[in-house]
Amino acid sequence: MLDVLPHKIHDESRQGEAYAPFVNDPSVYRKKFYIESYGCQMNFSDSEIVASILNGAGFGATRNVEEADLLLLNTCSIREKAEQTVRNRLTAFRKAKESRPGLLVGMLGCMAERLKSKLLEEEKLVDMVVGPDAYRSLPALIEEAEGGQKAVNVLLSREETYADISPVRLDSNGITAFVSIMRGCNNMCTFCVVPFTRGRERSRDADSIIAECTDLFNRGYKEVTLLGQNVDSYFFATGNAGEQAVTFAMLLEKVADISPLLRVRFSTSHPKDITDDVLHVMVRYDNICKYIHLPVQSGSTRILQLMNRTYTREWYMAKIDRIREIIPGCGISSDIIAGFCTETEEDHKDTLSLMEYSGYDMSYMFFYSERPGTLAQRRYTDDIPEEVKKRRLQEIVSLQNELSRQSNEKDTGRTFEVLIEGDSKKSTEDWMGRTSQNKVIVFSKKDHPFSKGDYVHVRVTDCTKATLLGEVVMNG
Ligand code: 5AD
Ligand code: SF4
Asked: How many domains does the chain have?
């Protein structure tokens, strides 16, 4: 027997709150599905689209593996470790099948294409394999699998954006939501498997994005994060004569116009694509959060070239200067890879010094993990020994801890507008919220009649390296 699974965000980088689908009204649905998601926010957002499609096919969500008729894993291929975790989960699911013959197991997402025949035919770990662009075919595939066939659809599409599907918010706090604005990626960073697992870049119809965000606001949500692998290259044209194409800067403005009480965030920005237009829109709207996730990957121009990032160290520094000039006080975070092919100590030192120059408030840090089929795997040798990769990563992590501490100390004594997201993780007597710069802040509920979803002014009184602590300022 399999225990009720822990409901966690299975994300090496984006560690977060508990995650599980809410339980739907059992009288409405003939069957139940259980879904676990791994990887990036995009994958979590996809699981909400999957939930909507499954609801339409008569499946309600459950948190409990024991009562599910269908177990789904939405998978990630970005690093080897993520794939290994998924394999372990699939093995546990197969055990559950042994005692419950009718139970179906499906693998969704980025691992689908690469491992379909292995997991389906050789190892017989799953009954269904469904790629990120094939979720509309889930009901038909379930029927096939119920009939005893191996059901597979891993076709990638040039058009699919699921624009017309209203995501079912899974285990939401009711205040913050992610809205997918584009899919796929055209940047061929040599280390990255995403262009192969998620296909070509395509932008979602702008009107459908505005409609989804408006609906969220009308249902009490106070913050939307616009999601894409590379949001700054968003570009949507209807093709109708006289209708203007929508750029990311324009989209941002349209979403911000929904209401001054709706906060807007976005992720991820490729440094080569974020424009001054976007920065100026950010300044013009108080409700567009002053925070940019701007992955650098490496501080060495030589390594950046091998990674095909299309910018140099100096160009990136100039971008940081520009952000600081146009949006003073903007929060900036990064992704960094330690130990990419041929990386020398000098290259590594360049990464450390660029981190200091940029003064990141936060970073997601990884050591290089060679992925099958990527350009780096085909062109270069993964030649940095694991101990060296790990030691360099540790140096990067230590420096980031120091930078985060400095950044938090700078905020001490200052007052920020905070959106309350819910109880703090540690105590129901404290609220947890975020500043515009995306920093988590915890403060006492005592004597204040606030609810989650409220905006409050909070003065920072203290900090740890990860969290600000504060107190409410009534006339802030
Ligand atoms: N090895 C290590 N980290 C990787 N990332 C992407 N591919 C790899 C890889 N092969 C990191 C990058 C990216 C983030 C989402 O994951 O830093 O920005
Ligand atoms: Fe997300 Fe990338 Fe993982 Fe796919 S491979 S789930 S896009 S992080």
From this structure: 2
